[in-house]
Amino acid sequence: MTRVFSIAIVDDHFAVRDGYKYFIEKLSFVVQVQCFAGEKEILEMLEKVKYDLILLDIELKDGNGLKMCRNLKLKYKGIKILILSGHHNKEYIVSAYQNEADGYLFKDTENEEVKFAIERVLMKEQKHFNLEAMDTIFQHQEFHKNRLKNPKKFLSKREIEIVILICEGKSNKEIGNILHRDETTISTHRYNIMKKIGVHKSLEILNYAIANGLYSPI
Question: Phi and psi for 59 in degrees, rounded to 5?
Answer without folding.
Answer: -95, 100
